[in-house]
Amino acid sequence: xxxxxxxDERAYWLALLRLPAIGAAGARLLLSRFGSxxxxxxxxxxxxxxxxxPAAARAYLGNPIWAEIGADLAWLAQPQHHLxxxxxxxxxxxxxxxxxxxxxxxxxxxxxxxxTPQLAVVGSRNPSPAGERTATDFAAHLSRAxxxxxxxxxxxxxAAAHRGALQVPAPTLAVAGxxxxxxxxAQHRDLAHAIAERGALxxxxxIGTPPRPDHFPRRNRIISGLALGTLVVEAAPQSGSLITARxxxxxxxxxFAIPGSIHNPLSRGCHALIRQGAKLVETGQDILEELAxxxxxxxxxxxxxxxxxxxxENVHEFSSLLNSLGFEPTSIDAVVERSGLTTEQxxxxxxxxxxxxxxxxxxxxxxTRMP
Length: 371
Description:
Elements: H1 3-6, H2 9-17, H3 23-34, H4 37-42, H5 45-50, H6 55-62, H7 66-76, E1 81-85, H8 93-96, E2 104-109, E3 118-122, H9 129-144, E4 148-151, H10 157-166, E5 172-175, H11 189-198, E6 200-203, H12 215-226, E7 229-232, H13 241-250, E8 254-257, H14 268-275, E9 279-280, H15 284-291, H16 303-306, H17 315-325, H18 332-339, H19 343-355, E10 359-362, E11 366-369
């Protein structure tokens, strides 16, 4: 490594990231013992042997591959590219609490967002249209209420959640299972760009790291570790999103699940979570009330939230809709006729009102205003 890079403390953190046979939990123990990555690398073989480090780790400590570090540093030199280390005061405190926090985080976007109150939203990669819409609507509503939506940018529920936040518009965080010079899946390139512009992309993996199956369970612990809680929208019994929910529970975080039809295979994972103690969620209010005691941030879940943002042109339209609905089961066509709003406006606004617990949907597509 050149002299300039040798003087860059970040280079030692990036070398620590590549230390074989150790892992994130082991790296944390080494930092506790040696103080810093530089002190670890400069300690010498006797100290490494006393620390009971495996032979592969001792060999790497004696001869790091600095050329690989150079690729990371070149990426970090670009605008809006950042590195947070475990010892950094701005490292997200909730993530630092887990048993195996990543030693470093690569960030493309705004690193301050990692310090905001977050909700992880995850689910099936092959959701039903209703499940995808639910993820989008919940993400939009919860973003307006003050939570940052965090997910993994996967196809399906993850992408729907990110898009729900972006349409507010609000920032959202995506945790990647690759290096941040790559986008996976490739069809989400535009989505990744939008997330980086308004929120942030996050990864623990060095630049150039390709997607591998074992990376995504590791990625999931960061998604749950950053957040106050995890919401599962739809999940089959073997869904990877259940791994995220299990990790959230192990990390002492809240787990929420949206129930569905007993005939829908994508509801079975959520139903299993509810049987195991996850909170059954019917409205966004359920989540906001549960999380209000876990953050000092002011999460807004008053009716003013319903009457703001891109879902409503003005307060009058929502008031007109509620007055047209009444407290008896009413069809959308009847609400359209009474309110003078379009079918598209009524359908969208009813979704928002249902998320807030202001209306409930019943059989036959009928809606009832809650007293």
